[in-house]
Amino acid sequence: MRNEAETRADLIDPAITSAGWGEVPKSRVGREYQVTPGRIRGAGMRERAGIADYVLVYRDHTLAVVEAKAEDKAVTEGLAQAKRYAAKLHARFAYSTNGHGIYRADLTTGTEGPVERYGTPDELWDACFLPIRADAGAAAADAWQKRFGSIPFENRGGFWQPRYYQYNAVNRTLEHIARGNSRILLTLATGTGKTAIAFQIVWKLYHSRWTVAEWRGTGGSTPRHPRVLFLADRNILANQAFNAFAAFPEDALVRIDPGEIRKKGRVPKNGSVFFTIFQTFMTGSDDEGNPQPYFGAYPPDFFDLVIIDECHRGGANDESTWRGILEYFAPAVQIGLTATPKRSGNVDTYRYFGEPVYTYSLKEGDRLLKVFQDNEKTIPTILTTSRKLSTGVDARNVRNIVLLRPVKSMIEFKQIVGRGTRLYDDKDFFTIYDFVKAYEHFLDPEWDGEPLEKTRTKRSGGDDGGDEVHEDPEDEGGTEPGHDPPPPTPRPQRIRIKLADGKERKIQHMVQTSFWDPSGRPLSSKEFIERLYGDIPDLFRDEEQLREIWSTPDTRQRLLDGLADKGYTRDHLDELARIVGAEDSDVYDVLAYIAWATATMSRDERVHTHRQDIFRHYDDRQREFIEFVLDHYVQGGIDELARERLPQLLQLKYGGTYDAVDVFGDLQSVREVFVGFQRYLYTGADSA
């Protein structure tokens, strides 16, 4: 039987090629395609990346995902994974195969079943886009769709690849333009690269020589490059965008500057992509000194495309004078970029542009901002007002945000937090120092989901069999007749959670911790424990199996990886240990406590309890090494018992691996002792 790699090489690759993929012009096959890089765990670690075996791309659109398994597996073994990746990539088709059979799911119609072969590039293209083109403008829409698809993404010489949501946003926008839509809104979380998305949209329109006149069929028989206006409300944002478009020819880019306009007496018109701010366009005067906005110096149909950055901040607001600019350039296709979902404060934006065509959610002036943005500076720079962080400024190396004033606006809070969520070299987390309870925005449904359940401290009435949180009775005080009341009782240090097994688990009352599930939904400590309790049966069936798994480094690591894949990273488990009062315990004890409410013991107690049982299996020189390892385990935790840690431990104990061999005789004996003693550390009687 062929393994998966052999099945792919011998059976699947030829079948995909025979369908024309990689052979038909503009078609290509992406192999081992990284859909997502993996959720950041912290400390420089990520969860496992999402890798699709194959993606089938035609005219720069991902049309299908193929998941491959070894030939002895069921043909549908990879179907769920293929569907998951296809959904993320906005691909319509998901294929699962073992090389002998092919199973296809259509994510649009919901139909699925076995097929004889893979669809050809043109077959899948027509299946994806013919329904969209089923109107009077079908031929024109088809032509534009193909024209846009013939222009590849600009990848900066292979050094940049769009993330799946950026890719989706660009293609969804171009699809809507091809279908004749002239008002388009993109809602993308702060820090997701709205400027990069705008660049790729303009890049494809520019090189396909799309213009409004030809698009509407009103003339323009001689193809030309489109004229694009990029509007922002801060100079730093306009400059930032201007620099981000550097891949365009130099003479194509124009920064509209009021000083240059006054100097030359006219607005610049030679160019293709123009950058300015609303305030500049609203200024200007005629020869008599009367107000005459500069934007009026351009004909209303001068620009083919207008992009409004951070459009929720006034560009589309009915009461904003900036709205006049958009109405003046009404013939142009207008794209609004925003980071804020629809709510009462920005309904005008959504009324003007319509519902977003694509949504991706998370859940002293310009000179000083430039200094703050300099990521190469080695001297720390402090920005003393967080309001400057609400402007979309690309300062990726923000690692600390201190909030000393209330942030009442959810929009502003998201933008401030978004400065921290940008990744940078060696930056995989940031810290918020919150002195004003701004963290409560995380509990609001407008953040990115339903609010956290508030902690309940006491509940009266009978037991209805459900989960219950209440205070420990031993923490309650009383007053005897004739005695003065005692001083106020401190708040209880522990509360108890009753899970479905009827047993109670205690957690720290004074600790406020928010966890996050794999979808990004915030969880309270109680919800996190309940979720872990519910997932445990999928990981191990009883304590005997947990002991067996945990007593060997390799199986223990596989369990930890499995936990991480379900959203229980080491950081989560370490924090859980803290809130259940077991921060000095082994992760094993924490899992056993959640699963069966068994008493925890510290790592020091575990070593003391099992030392005799461990040592009776080894001689003096082996015991000396084991004692050394156990000391590190007590201090550093379970990571000290990982197989990857052995070389460092040998270096610390003996000065190197070869010196250890002199003591033990051979390296295999060292490994056997290191792995072997761990069984007795966990399988002995913990109650001894």
Low-confidence stretches: 449-486, 488-492
Structural class of the secondary elements? Answer: alpha/beta
The gross shape turns out to be globular
**How far apart are the first and last residues' alpha carbons, in Å?**
50 Å
Q: In this structure, how is the largest beta sheet organized?
A: 7 strands, parallel
Number of strands: 22
Q: Which range best describes the helical content: under 10%, 10-25%, 25-40%, 40-55%, 55-70% or over 70%?
A: 25-40%
Q: Please, what is the average pLDDT?
A: 81
**SS strand fraction:** 15-25%
Strand order of the largest sheet: 11-12-10-13-14-9-15
Radius of gyration: 31 Å
Give the number of helices: 25
Could you explain the architecture of this structure?
The chain has 688 residues and is of the alpha/beta class. The protein has 25 helices and 22 strands. The strands form six sheets. A seven-stranded parallel sheet has the order 11-12-10-13-14-9-15, with helices on both faces. Helix 4 (138-149) packs antiparallel against helix 5 (164-178) and helix 21 (603-615) crosses helix 25. The longest helix is centred in the C-terminal third of the chain and has 17 residues, at 620-636. The protein is globular, with a radius of gyration of 31 Å. The two termini are 50 Å apart. 33% of the residues are buried. The model is unreliable at 449-486 and 488-492 (pLDDT under 50).
